[in-house]
Amino acid sequence: MKRLGILLSGRGSNFEAIADSVAAGRLDAEIAIVISNRREARGLEIARARGFPAVCIPSKGLPREDYDRQLIAELKSRDVDLICLAGFMRLLTAEFCREFPMRILNIHPSLLPAFPGLDAQKQALEHGVKISGCTAHFVDEHLDAGPIVLQAAAAVLAGDTAETLSARILKEEHRIYSEAIRIVLAGGWRIEGRRVVVD
After folding, report:
1. pLDDT-based confidence at 50, cuts 50/70/90?
2. Domains in the chain, please, with CATH?
3. In contact, 59 and 41? CB cutoff 8 Å
4. Catalytically active residues, by annotation
């Protein structure tokens, strides 16, 4: 069975959605480790309550390269097949990405390449788009730029705030992230240009 490593910094709702998919048998995988860079992350509490190994590797005050080397060592010690970023609020170094090529997934709350980086929902509202959504994509050394596995749209409604739009997009994130993980773990895909094509 394939082993997942989950990286998170906060509430861990996407991690919970992944764990629910594993528990329901929709995802043929096991969660080998949950790691946070913040001790107070609610996702760590949830992981421990659900019986998953969960560790904090604090990032505060550490150079990015040093921190990522600690992450690499922990993930390798757990024999992780696929790394899933679930609200992990750190940029990964090129060294980290090279250690796990095409084995890191992220879920981002916009239809990439629109609105990369932080506050994507606020960016979408300020830009005046009518449709936003979320993107499950591979992670490379560039910000929110790796090949796209799946996307889902969410309408931007009159009167939306960053919070109301975020909540609508989050429902789609929970739906497509597990499906993207399933596709990647199943194999039978290839990359054409910047697209992930499933055979």
Report:
1. very high
2. 1-100 (3.40.50.170), 107-199 (3.40.50.170)
3. no
4. 108
